[in-house]
Amino acid sequence: MLSIKNLHASVEGKEILKGINLEIKAGEVHAIMGPNGSGKSTLSQVLAGNDAFEVTSGEVTLNGENLLEKETEERAREGVFLAFQYPVEIPGVSNLQFMRTAVNAMRHHKGEPEMNAAEFMKLAREVSKQVDLDPAFLKRGVNEGFSGGEKKRNEIMQALLLQPKLAILDETDSGLDIDALKVVSDGVNALRAQDRAILMVTHYQRLLDHIVPDYVHVLADGKIVKSGGRELALELEERGYGWLGIKEDATEASSAN
Amino acid sequence: MATTDQEVNELIKREYEHGFVTEIEVDTFEPGLNEDVVTRLSEIKKEPEFMLEWRLKAYRRWLEMEEPEWAHVGYPKIDYNAISYYSAPKRKEDMPQSLDDVDPELLKTYEKLGIPLHERAKLAGVAVDAVFDSVSVATTFKEPLAKAGVIFCSISEAMRDHPELVKKYLGTVVPHTDNYFAGLNSAVFSDGTFVYVPKGVRCPMELSTYFRINAANTGQFERTLIIADEGSYVSYLEGCTAPMRDENQLHAAVVELVALDDAQIKYSTVQNWYPGDENGKGGIYNFVTKRAACIGKNSKVSWTQVETGSAVTWKYPSCILRGDNSVGEFYSVALTHNHQQADTGTKMIHLGKNTSSTIISKGISAGKSSNAYRGLVKFGPRAEGARNFTQCDSLLIGDRCGAHTFPYIESLNKSAIVEHEATTSKVSDEQMFLCRQRGIDPERAVSMIVNGFCKEVFKELPMEFAVEAGKLLEVSLEGSVG
Ligand SMILES: Nc1ncnc2c1ncn2[C@@H]1O[C@H](COP(=O)(O)OP(=O)(O)O)[C@@H](O)[C@H]1O
Ligand SMILES: [Mg+2]
Question: Most buried among A145, A187, A190, B319, using CB within 10 Å?
Answer without folding.
Answer: B319
